[in-house]
Amino acid sequence: MIHLKNISKIYSNGTEALKNITLDIEPGEFVFIVGPSGAGKSTFLKLLIHEEKATFGRIRVNGYDLMKIKNRKVPYLRRTMGIVFQDFRLIEKMNVFDNIAFAMRAIGTPERAIRKRVSFVISAVGLTGKEKSRPSELSGGEQQRVSLARALVNNPEIIIADEPTGNIDPKMSFEIMKRLVDINKKGTTVIVVTHEHELVKEFGGRIIIINGGEIQRDERIPAKIHEQENEDENEGSGDNS
Asked: What is the pTM of this model?
């Protein structure tokens, strides 16, 4: 699915953003990429979607060799991904339905199929009834759910979420993360880039910590939320006789 081997990225000003990174992300994994500002997280994402090209090393994503990919093939690579941005990147002149449908119209999907799929993902992210609303009429959390629906609409192999909870309140952050977990349970690979360590501890999974352009740690931790659910189940199954 995603394979990086000895990847380094050096910008024209001499900044070495990533240093000899090697990792694999398998189909169906849920991965947090964590690190402080300037650690190399954004560069890592830009390499995956081919906004930037690595200086050295090998990188393959969904069968594409990103060191050799031709420019005309990049749109096809990106169609295998859904991207959730921190700043939403919604089109104000379009309503919720059209913001989500835009991604399908861009690849020539028939309108009948668009109506069916967009209605499905709107329901899946809990926005039924908001189809005709403009982005400015929505809360930050609702806008992020539109962004998530847009990322899902073409049924991508990978969802990449870049600081998806950065501009929303804690309650909505939890809800967005729950939806990403649910998406992952259906088989989609999910990569979440964040600096929110408490949220990572809450949901657990595979945690890759990047610092100074290097992988500092790659580990799996249990989710607190699952521990709490198990405790609740155990309390509820006590002998009441």
From this structure: 0.86
